[in-house]
Amino acid sequence: MSNAAWETLSNQAVAAAGIVYFLALLAHLIEWSALRSLPVAAGAERQSSVDIPGGVAVATGPDEEAEAKLRRTELFGRLGFLLTCLAVAVHLVALVARGMAADPNRVPWGNMYEFTLAGSFVVALIYVALYHRLRLAWMAPIVVAFVLSVLMVAAIWLYAPVAPLTEALTSYWLVIHVVSAIIATGAFTIGGITSAMYLVKVRGSEKTTGYVARLPQPEVLDRVSYRLHAFGFPVWTFAVLITGPIWAHQAWSSYWNWDPKEVWAFITWVVYAAYLHARTTAGWKGRNAAILALVGMATLWFNFIGINYFSTTSQHSYADGAPAVVERR
């Protein structure tokens, strides 16, 4: 295939992934809309003893009509998850084709459009991978809507034609550094969503119907959030404090350049380090921990996207669209 054909395939795969994500979102919205009319109490009791952590609270009992409706809603839930898995596979095709479209072939994260494609893919991949292990059915409409929205932003506002990598990016340290940073970003994002839902659940703990009533118990949400952040932090540390400086030294002859991206990456590291330190040493759980986790996610995504639009001095200027010349020091 020619480079133009690979680029066309990538663009078509992005569009197809967006359509499948949208269908998955519809399936989950139908599921949760139907669940609103089903009782919660019995399911919530079962969830606290059997379904922890993180399943959908539903009631069971002698009501055959309710049981039949529950089976139908579960069908839409399984359909939504299968569609999400299919969308993730198509999303991967878009990334691979994007890399194959370049001459020479390269990793698919040479600009902001490609970074966003890769970042949203990892968020969806981590969600799918942990769906059964952490029982994340309750998170389905939020994650799918988030990934779909980011994909739409990338396709509509961030798109850039395929181009060769700049000199600073032609390094195997790019692969190591960016892969680890994107994996941590996905874990932190899923953890941040969980923390946000913790705050929503605590505030609406007395609700007996609707989406909030079917969220896992606050202690379950708190524990799931902690596990995700505990996984993401060492990966982010590896990306920010080890591979990043090595790559910077190779590209700019200096391990630390006070580049805005570097500074904000370190700020993000400090916030998450404080979050984990407070939890492990002071037993700081619940609302305060959730708020700190959301602060961390805000700094993370500001560094990921905001720096490219608010900073004119960043040496990572190649990430805002078309490649720019990055001078060596």
TrEMBL record:
It is found in: Membrane. Signal peptide: none annotated. Pfam families: Cytochrom_C_asm. InterPro entries: Cyt_c_assembly, Cyt_c_biogenesis_CcsA, Cyt_c_biogenesis_CcsA/CcmC. It is a multi-pass membrane protein. The keyword Membrane applies. The chain crosses the membrane at residues 12-30, 79-100, 112-131, 138-160, 172-200, 228-248, 263-278, 290-310. The keyword Ribosomal protein does not apply. Keywords: Cytochrome c-type biogenesis, Membrane, Transmembrane, Transmembrane helix. PANTHER family: CYTOCHROME B_B6 PROTEIN-RELATED, HEME EXPORTER PROTEIN C. This is C-type cytochrome biogenesis protein CcsB. It comes from Nocardioides caricicola.
